[in-house]
Amino acid sequence: MASTMRSMSRILTRTSRSALSPIEHTAAKTTGLFSANLRAATNVNSRSSSSSSNNNAGLLLRRSFSTSPACLRARTMGQLKARNSTGPFSWKAALLFVLTGGGMIIYFRVEKERLERKRIAEMSKGVGKPKVGGPFTLKDLDGKEFTAEDLKGRYSFVYFGFTHCPDICPDELDKMAEIIDKVKEATKGENVFLPVFITCDPARDTPEVLRAYLKEFHPDIIGLTGTYDEVKHVCKQYRVYFSTPRDIKPGEDYLVDHSIYFYLMDPDNDFVECIGRQDTPESATRTIMEHINDWKREGKPLKKD
Amino acid sequence: MGWLPWSSESTNTASDGGRIAPDRTSRQRCYEGRDMFFTCLDRNDILDAIKDDKEARRKCGKEIAEFETACSRAWVKYFKEKRVMEYNRDKTIERIKKEDAAQVQELKAQGWNSR
Question: Which intervals of the chain are annotated as region Disordered (chain B) (predicted)?
Fold first, then answer.
């Protein structure tokens, strides 16, 4: 075997005298089919040369069909390098991208919140008759008639309570006083907010008692009272539960159970939202101001005098 | 329970027939009397001052007298009831929290993962 190998390689060097040595060497190893292998090797060579010439033709072809103007092409290596290092992005593009994106996010978020509030307000309005609130007739502390019409044109903030309330109402009224001041500050003193206190205990809470009581909390609170039936009617309108006994003996001491929500009503006197025990003066003011600002933004009428 | 004289202010009548409610200072006085009385109850391990009235009066005689002078009878009753109610409420919250924690422990032991 070794002798034949040697003789073959001698024949190979003698016949081809070319530089195709590695292919020929492996071919020689496989023996026998020497000539066939040689042919294959030359074939490979010729194919690669023809394909390279094809490539050149393709390049020429492509260039002739090119539509991009020649001036876009980089003139110098510097320009080419600069373009390649940043690609189509520059700081201007990045800034524009960030600003547009940020703006969109903020806009969508604000708009979403506004629509959500509007939905809540619309939902509370119900169809036809409002679910909470409605016409009533009571008397203010000067004995003048006060009806639901007097609440219209402003945002009103209605609270039901009684002066002999042990601890919850005084706490809530202190909160109300804070809210009044905060809303006043936020609306820059515009008179668009009407805090109202309606007593559930008309037998004991006469105008004089109510006036003295409310003065301790905030001078702006409008106190309202009426007959037992009038109060019962307004409580029913506002879906307020209360347990005042109808006939009480003079001097009898009792407490009144009642619902402890603030009702925010819009200038059409439609119910907007409840403010409850869980709200802080800050969170309540935020809610109220959002509604007032929405109302203003929609250009609806609002009394300010 | 009504043998002690109660605060004269709560029976005050306004000129238009209404009854004057305790003002801020008398409310404050009432709260202070209440807090003092309740501290005494805590010290003597009494929860319900209505049910254990005799015991409360024996041990916190001075405090209850002050409390009942500073607050009207309805308020006294209200605060005593509220004390029991709040105690039960806190107990319930505590129990639920404990049960929740135990349940979480159990679920974790079973290899359950939140999320």
Answer: 1-25
